[in-house]
Design brief:
263 residues, mainly beta, 2 domains, six-stranded antiparallel beta sheet, 18 strands, 8% helix
């Protein structure tokens, strides 16, 4: 006989306020074995409901092959959470300056106008490595050990790694935060201690590079420029000139509320 689990109509009794909680009530049918019924109840009920963690599950027999299961959701008991941050930034190679502040040439000659291109050679635009504003930050939270009991939450962390925030997160705008992943540890039946790591890069609007204006670049989009040969009539030389700019989305977007640590 197959075991079925269905949510009952009187489910979802909710308490709000400082210590919110929700009770989901289920009907488990198809077995007279309490262990099998309990396993089915845990497999069917979500680990997180409305940003609340699954805390307890109560099973009560109502007929020979029927059980009522009540699953309680609330804020798990947590140890002290910790936060770290690092504003040392990252390194990025750029081929275009924001502004050319000086040009110099031998007496009687005119320096070629490369329109902000950096490190121009006969065949290439070499660019230069610069420090870019990246805000690295981490958070460590203690989570109830039952939250990770069946591996679902671990798979959630795995799936969110390398994703960018679809909604505002920790005061940053959409597209500015990259989830770098999480590390977790526990001893025996203690709570899980999980460290979440993030990096934030600012969104940019109306960025002028050479004769090109980039109207919008989200923090973790990739910007690159295409160059072509052009003639500088004043210097009477062939130059490399930026002729097009491309903003590429290279990361998928995701809902960081699924991390279960607030937004």
């Amino acid at each position: 006989m197959a075991i079925t689990v269905t949510e009952k109509w009187e489910s979802r009794e909710t308490t709000g306020g400082k210590d919110p909680s929700v009770d989901l009530v289920f009907l488990v049918q198809g077995t007279d074995n309490d262990i099998a019924a309990g396993d089915a109840l845990l497999a069917f009920s979500p680990l997180v409901y409305n940003n609340l963690a699954r805390l307890t599950a109560h099973l009560e027999r109502t007929a020979e092959y029927a059980w009522q299961g009540t699953v309680n959701y609330g804020k798990p008991e947590e140890g002290e959470s910790t936060w770290t941050f690092d504003t040392s930034g990252g390194t990025q190679r750029v081929t275009q300056s924001l502004d050319t502040v000086g040009t110099y040439a031998p007496s009687g000659e005119t320096a070629p106008n490369f329109h902000g291109a950096i490190g121009v050679s006969k065949d290439n635009v070499e660019g230069v490595d610069i420090t870019t504003p990246i805000f690295n930050f981490g958070e460590t939270h203690d989570l109830d050990h039952t939250l990770l009991a069946d591996g679902t939450y671990k798979l959630t962390l795995f799936g969110l790694t390398g994703k960018v925030n679809l909604y505002p997160f920790r005061g940053f705008a959409i597209g500015e935060v990259l989830f770098l992943g999480a590390q977790g540890s526990k001893t025996g039946m203690d709570n899980w201690s999980i460290n979440y790591r993030f990096a934030a890069s600012p969104n940019v609007v109306n960025l002028d590079l050479g004769d090109i204006t980039i109207t919008e670049k989200r923090g973790w989009d990739y910007l690159w420029l295409s160059y072509a040969d052009a003639e500088d009539t004043s210097a009477k030389r062939l130059i490399k000139k930026p002729v097009a700019a491309y903003v590429e989305q290279v990361y998928e977007y995701a809902d960081f509320s699924l991390l279960g640590i607030g937004v």
